[in-house]
Amino acid sequence: HEVQEGVRERALLDRVAPLRDKVVLAMRDSPKPIIAAVNGPAAGAGMNLALACDMRIASTTARFGQTFVKRGLHVDWGGTYVLPRLVGMAKACELIFTGDMISAEEAYELGLLNKLVAPDQLMPATYELAQKIAAGPPIAIRLAKRALYHNQDTDLRAALEFETFAQNVCRETEDAREGIRAFVEKRPPRFQ
What DSSP state is assigned to residue 102? Predict the structure, then answer.
């Protein structure tokens, strides 16, 4: 019976892993910024799904934990990739090895969150940030997102080359012309 359970469990994981990986990679490759709004416990895969987003806003009622170890499981959903890049290796080790839950306040202090708000302000704050980004130049923002993630795993020379490529693309857009006109005319730009 135990062997059959192990086989069934492995078959389930073999079906889930490609979908899980596809979701995380789609989030990373999305041309649009993704904002997580967290209003309660984000444990295990829930925490890592939030970490896979570009930005995170949480209410003071949120809690975060890499709780896999408490179930005898290994971290997935990109947690071992993203978490050390956000909090450093030592803190990532502590969170993953202990499986402890941390408060939203601690998550904010660690740099896991962009903003910490009261529960009734979570969605308004999230929409406010989304609207601010949406009002910006879409091509420049898309290329900036791509550069940020590309350049985190490359050397300075390659990062500078990618920035030059992205700047050259942006320079040819109507948004760049509008941004310069708006600056000269001392008015807010109206990006398309």
Answer: E
